[in-house]
Amino acid sequence: MKPGRKTEPRRGTRRGRAEILAGDFGPRGTPGANLDPAPDAHALRDHALGALIELSGALALSSDIYRAADALLPNLMGQIGTAHAALWLAPESPPQTLVMIRSRGFDPALARALDHAGAAELLRCFASEPRPLDPGELARAGLGDVGRALHQARVELVAPLAVRGELLGIAALGPRTGRRSYAPMDRAVIQASMAIAAVAMQTSRLGSGLIEKNRLLRLANEELRGLDRLQSEFLSNVNHELRTPLAVVIASLDCLTDIVGEDPPGASLVRDAQNQAERLQELVEDLLTFSAADDALELHVIAGDAGALLAEYHRERMPGIAAELRELTLECAPQLPPARYDPTRLRQVLDALVDNAVKFTPRGTHIRLEVGPVRESDRAWVCIRVRDNGPGIPADQLPRLFEAFRQLDSSMTRTVGGMGLGLALARRLIGAMDGQLRAESEIGRGATFSVLLPAA
Amino acid sequence: MQDEFKVTSAPGRGRTALLRLHGSLDARTAPLLLEKSAEVQANGQNLVLNLAGVSFVGSSGIGALLILVEQFQEQSGKVRLAALSPAAEAVVKLLSLDELLAIDRTEDEALEALER
């Protein structure tokens, strides 16, 4: 085989595609003695086109950036005829140095050649298009060491891997067979190959990123589910541990009442202790109910008169609430159909709603209990409303009202006490009765909690 | 380019293994060649590749041959190509690959060259 003519790189020249296609392939033979350049030129053009087709097919099948690099480098090597090719990619997050993905034929030291240079500076130097290595230019850009290392490794061309203006990395190519230089047409074909590879690699990166995010989300979800389970088990254990000593405390306080009698300081202290112990007992009962699994909730559902239950409930609660200077009224619609509910649990829910209204409204608030028939989703319901004219609940807080251990803000929790279990428990209980519990509110115009019970 | 690609192992000589390739050597089929060659290399053998049955050699196929030669050289192994089909010869000439690849006219010549 005759030695090929070495052509000088024509950096920066701008020529038409037709001129490039006609003149740049197959610079074979000695100057002026190229007897028949056409066959080689055609063959090289076909070879380049075949390389691009082959590459796009191989990249379409590559599952990740390493597989894409394994498709790109042999293709470039076989496309231009070099035994040396390497690819670096920029990490997605700073601090950035380029990371070698694959190297073929180069001295392994090349892998470390770019370690001490900023990825941004390197990418800027090689951004525009595939260009012959120019150590002088790199030195002027403060990358003299990099230039020398690349030159020593016999890098002759550096090509950017870019997609939509974003530089993902660079490829380095070594000397070509036939002592040929990288002519403009070769560089154009290399650029096309790099563009195809860049799209494939970017897509692969985005896909990998999504897969990883999904994995992390799944892990986070599993962790949350685990925490939920742990929390239930913890609550259940704690409740049992609290109930027994509390029962003893309350019984002892009852005995103490008899012993202390009506003696003012002692009687008052014991009464306070009793009140607080009973309050604590209620909270523990709430916790126990809440931590019980749904299927473990014991329900005794009847078809009953919710109006009568409300009337009784109103009678019981009105004095205490009035004593705290809030008004509690009842409006009961005539001809109320029977509803399906567990009377004890429904009272528990009404407690939660009324207590909530008391806790989160100032004195002087009017709390209304309303009960009436409604039709919704083609079904007949009995609707109980607990409506107040207090300060209201911010719209963004409404969806979270029924989450366990949540109150509007921690400052309010400190003021009003409680564990934020009431509403979560209420919704769970109503759900277990096949009913619905909702909240509506407007700042400055109070809040309304609606319990829908299925009509019997 | 539709030919089924096959790599057939034939009796080699001494420390040299012989693989005969048949069909289209391209991005799709090159991994099989690299896999079979790696088995030869793992046995500490040299390799002769008979390309007489190769109907097409794509860029990725050439790249695979160049990579394969480099991999053998890294462990002081040698690879020779033999009996190039017209398709293989055309692309070797086109890219002056004979500078990088050791090429012989026949299997025997290649096997002999590696015995020396």
Output the keywords.
heterodimer; A: 456 residues; alpha+beta; Beta-Lactamase; Heat Shock Protein 90; 2 domains; five-stranded mixed β-sheet; 12 strands; elongated; disordered N terminus; B: 116 residues; alpha/beta; Transcription Regulator spoIIAA; 4 helices
Could you explain the architecture of this structure?
The complex is a heterodimer of chains A (456) and B (116). Chain A has 456 residues and is α+β, with helices and mostly antiparallel strands. Chain A has two domains: 17-207, 2-Layer Sandwich (Beta-Lactamase), CATH 3.30.450; 302-454, Heat Shock Protein 90 (2-Layer Sandwich), CATH 3.30.565. Helices cover 50% and strands 16% of the residues of chain A. Chain A has helices at 17-23, 37-60, 65-80, 119-125, 135-140, 144-152, 184-260, 264-291, 306-323, 343-359, 410-416, 422-432, and strands at 85-89, 99-104, 131-132, 157-163, 166-173, 302-304, 327-332, 339-341, 366-376, 379-388, 436-441, 447-454. In chain A, strands 2-1-5-4-3 form a five-stranded antiparallel sheet. Chain A has a five-stranded mixed sheet with strand order 7-9-10-12-11. In chain A, helix 2 packs antiparallel against helix 3. The longest helix of chain A has 77 residues, at 184-260. Chain A starts with 16 loop residues before the first helix and ends with a strand. Residues 1-37 and 408-417 of chain A have low confidence and may be disordered. Chain B is of the alpha/beta class and 116 residues long. Chain B has a single domain (6-115), classed as Transcription Regulator spoIIAA, CATH 3.30.750. Chain B has a five-stranded mixed sheet with strand order 1-2-3-4-5, sandwiched between helices. Classes of the chains: A alpha+beta (456), B alpha/beta (116). At the A-B interface, helix 2 and helix 3 of A face helix 2 and helix 3 of B.
